[in-house]
Write a structure and sequence with these properties.
Blueprint (H helix, E strand, L loop, with lengths): L1 E5 L24 E3 L4 E3 L2 E3 L2 E5 L9 H10 L4 E5 L2 H4 L14 H10 L3 E5 L15 H6 L8 H17 L13 E3 L8 H14 L5 E5 L12 E6 L14 H4 L36 E6 L14 H14 L4 E7 L1 E2 L24 E2 L13 H20 L3 E3 L16 E5 L4 E6 L10 E9 L6 E10 L4 E10 L2 E6 L2 E8 L2 E7 L7 E5 L3 E5 L4 E5 L2 E5 L8 E6 L4 E7 L1 H4 L2 E6 L2 E6 L3 E5 L2 E6 L5 E5 L6 E3 L2 E2 L1 E5 L2 E5 L12 E5 L20 H7 L1 E5 L13 E7 L2 E6 L2 E7 L5 E4 L13 E6 L21 E8 L2 E7 L1
Parallel strand pairs: 1-18, 5-6, 5-12, 6-7, 8-9, 9-10, 10-11, 11-12, 23-29
Antiparallel strand pairs: 2-3, 3-4, 13-14, 15-16, 16-17, 17-20, 18-19, 20-21, 21-24, 22-23, 24-27, 25-28, 26-27, 28-29, 30-31, 31-34, 32-33, 33-47, 34-38, 35-36, 35-47, 37-38, 39-40, 40-45, 41-44, 41-46, 42-43, 42-45
Amino acid sequence: MPHLLRVPAPPAPPLTGHLPFADAPGAPDPIEVTSRYLTRGGRPWFPVSGEFHYARYPARDWEEELLKMKAGGVTVVASYVIWIHHEEIEGRVRFDGDRDLRRFAELCARHGLDFIPRIGPWCHAEVRNGGFPDWLLARTRAPRTDDPAYLEPVRGWFTAIAQQLRGLDRAHGGPIVAIQIENELYDQPGHLLTLKRMAQAAGLSAPLWTSTAWGGVRLPSDELLPLYGGYTETFWTEADGGWPDTCRKHFFFTHQRDDEGIGADLRPTTVRGGDPTPTDRFPWATCELGGGMAVAYHRRPRVEPDDIGALGLTKIGCGSVWQGYYMFHGGTNPAGELTTLQESHATGYPNDLPVLTYDFQAPLGEYGQVRPSYHALRLQHLLLADFGDLIAPMESVLPERQPASQSDRDTLRWAVRGDGTSGFLFVNNHQPHEPLPAHPGTTFTVDFPDAPALTLPSAPVTVPTGAYFCWPLRLDIAGLRLDWATAQPVCRVQDDGRTVLVLAATDGVPVELALDAGTVASVDTPSGAVDKADGRVLITGLRPGTDALVQVRTADGNDVGLLVLDATTARTAYRGTAWGAERLVLSPDSVVFDQDELRVHSSASRPSFAVLPTPARPLTVAGAPLSATADGVLTRWTTEDWADEDSAPAATLVRPAGPPPTTATGPLGRASAPADEHFAACAAEYHVKLPDDLPHRPSGTVLRVHWTGDVARAYVGDTLVADQFFSGRVWDIGLDRLPAAAPRNRGLRLLLLPLAADAPVHLPERAGDVTGRAAVWRVEWGTSRAWAVRAG
């Protein structure tokens, strides 16, 4: 079916200088905000931010995890500064150990990552009291207002944060590009302004001051940059509510920025009498695109990798100019000195959360696990790293034929980010829970105001069920004009004087490359056919893979390569500086780039990776050379064998489960998590022997527990070390997190409660019927080793 879209004439230049945001004088790359996009150093800037709560992760591993985020395309790290984590006991403000805010910010700076502290004072983040210490709530009856009894301790808290971050602002070459005030405060614009002024008076400084803006928020005029969000699933809605429409809408291309559903259990879904934040003065920026989702006891959503990937790509097509993910990295709640620190019915919140785990099903998990969603998002972030400066100023345009409603699953969902002559075409044919049908016979016509229309591809194709992708329209690559490609741009690399554009094919869509003949002197393709017609060189039938390099000599004498990877291989692509040059690295494992070293985190017995361009010197690990073989136009390097000599772990049943406990309910009538005493009376108990060399294990060693039940807890002695609500997912327990003082020789004790048949609990369909059962099916070690690869 043909699809038509007309790109309007380019709009008037965006407003500039209309907002009171200013970078530090003399900053070499000044950050500015226009009404449509951000700039940095005078060029359009498309940041990618990811949330990582430092206080929920061991400080010894922060640096490696930040490097994983950077390798995943994150350019800005955001983190709540959670008050109760730092000052649970009044007057004892802790910034030591895993709470060392300054060290975390300095590590961001060391590795070229920007930093955004979200200073609250109310944060939420599924934390007790939204992050308020208990003693603060005892002090005032009017928190989150200008009540002097509230503002006085807030002033002290902001001063403590400012002392930690002194000298890390942009004026001193530091990483802080923005500061978020409060969170989800929808009806107190005057108080938000008070908090901003207090933070400034305390010494905090940044070119951008931001606020969450969903739910019809009222912000002080022009004082805070509104940031939006959107989640694929929710834990905060009712157990029997189905997939929320507020999530469904994020899989359509629209120009609606707001999401009235985020946190709607804690506030009205709209603010009566509130005026919407004007969209003609601010760019469309986000801070909470769902990188996953937490699980509550009453509702346990399961988020799939393509849900996250489709959400991210769709938002770019909608017009986002700042991709911000919550969470990008999971973590674990720190142990409180007085109480547990998670959100719960016991603290008056509508949702019961696990005591410890805040994994969030994030791209990087609670123990640093690399998830398939990390690979899906990295492709998009590589695209933005190379072409974000082109995409950011482009307007989002919707086609003439659009879905009639959110229940319309038959109309193809697509959009274009374009200017007068060029652009990027976005398609999303994926949504959770309700698969979208394939679209056979598809072609697109994009009518530009200042250039001839493009109709592509040359022959109709089928857009497969579940596909989501971005195609370039009139993209210039070192003097070669690529009129279109039915493959997604990934990144550019330089190989021996040649610019190579790496593209990712889409499963089920034939690869077609259309080159402007006027920019082409010669073409050499390893497969397929080359035809010339209508002023274009058309390449069809190309078989994607590591050898699918189309070599082009441009009319002005440049050499350009178009490397089209198959969809599976493309999701292994990294790009970073290694051994003195910027390189493409293909690895299914986690790869980080650290100065003259590349580290591969792998559980494979013989990990390998491919590189372009090939390093001039041999690659080594611990001085031993790696073997090298050709992998298409790349060189594949393989490490030596290593074998895990541990015997397979076993979970020994100590005591079978008793009858499920009766389900209690809490606020809003939602099911409450079982009380502590139920574990002693009703839980199945298993014992797992721990390895003798556990203290010497590499970071990232986990015990993977396949289980069925309702709630699971793991103990070393009497110390709770891990927990999970059952949703059908494997339960990982980080063995390097076990407390050193605990009696490890006694092993792990696993307690599993069964689920009552009448419990008002939502489980994913894939979890199956688990009522009345509590059992461990098998356990296994998950060991990931880091291979430090050097040249020479």
